[in-house]
Amino acid sequence: MDGKIIDGKEISRQIKEEVKQEVEQLKAEGCTPGLAVILVGNDPASASYVGSKERTVQALGMHSEVIRMDEATSEAKLLGEIRRLNDDPAIHGILVQLPLPDQIDEQRIISEIAPEKDVDGFHPVNAGKLMAGLPGFVPCTPLGIMVMLERSGVVLEGKHAVVVGRSNIVGKPMSMLLLQKNATVTVCHSRTADLPSITKQADILVAAVGREGMIGGEHVKEGAVVIDVGINRGTDGKLHGDVDFDAVLPIASKITPVPGGVGPMTIAMLMANTLESARNACRQNG
């Protein structure tokens, strides 16, 4: 059973330990990686995420800056803050916690972040680089999934990967990363007809739809690797994935749990992206 569960907590711990060692080495060379996080408003979930990121940054020895702005903050004021951070040499990564209040255009905000500091990987420049197979920042969740698969010994080349979900944050970049590793990729979504007939062909199945328990045993081929990206608060108050874990566990060869699977990897890869940005900046300046 232990070999079936892909332990995101343990893999993320390994990543963070590796990042911490490299941060120490970079600091010895006179360069301290810095991450700035902007939180607009008082959404409890967003505040919790930001707090977790702040603690992780500090634990890894990086410079942390958290800018908390009022719910009524104007788009112009937020854009001004991003421009300030773009020009600040002590900041190598800029993250604006989403979602933003209604008066602010998320895409405009994301596009204002300097691409070389876009450690979330959401800027159109980085999205284009991913599509073209060029070096750039990749969104942290799909990047974390690729690391999980690699460190769990999952072979992707020649395999059929099915991604359920087509968001810019997970589904689309996930499909590009799998293609780069020579998997054959199918992307499904809310309009896909007869979903089980397609997902049942998958050697690797990635569920990223945001609907609790949507993927059941009838969706999964015997021996498939199942990656559950969903984080849904159930009526029982607990976190549940997009996959019916108990139904799929006996069928899958490997599976990620919720919580403790993909979630911890997202912050770990944010730290890795920030380190990479700092390394790039210090090379250019040094």
From TrEMBL:
Enzyme Commission numbers on file: 1.5.1.5, 3.5.4.9
Protein species of origin: Edaphobacillus lindanitolerans
Pathway: One-carbon metabolism; tetrahydrofolate interconversion
Lineage: Bacteria, Bacillati, Bacillota, Bacilli, Bacillales
Role description: Catalyzes the oxidation of 5,10-methylenetetrahydrofolate to 5,10-methenyltetrahydrofolate and then the hydrolysis of 5,10-methenyltetrahydrofolate to 10-formyltetrahydrofolate.
Keyword Nucleotide-binding assigned: no
Binding site residues for NADP(+): G165, R166, S167, I231
Residues spanning the signal sequence: none
Start and end residues of each Tetrahydrofolate dehydrogenase/cyclohydrolase NAD(P)-binding domain: 139-280
Keywords: Amino-acid biosynthesis, Histidine biosynthesis, Hydrolase, Methionine biosynthesis, Multifunctional enzyme, NADP, One-carbon metabolism, Oxidoreductase, Purine biosynthesis
BP terms from Gene Ontology: L-histidine biosynthetic process; methionine biosynthetic process; purine nucleotide biosynthetic process; tetrahydrofolate interconversion
NCBIfam families assigned to the protein according to its UniProt record, in alphabetical order: PRK10792.1, PRK14186.1
Protein name, UniProt field: Bifunctional protein FolD
InterPro entries xrefs: Aminoacid_DH-like_N_sf, NAD(P)-bd_dom_sf, THF_DH/CycHdrlase, THF_DH/CycHdrlase_cat_dom, THF_DH/CycHdrlase_CS, THF_DH/CycHdrlase_NAD-bd_dom
Gene encoding the protein: folD
Quaternary organization: Homodimer.
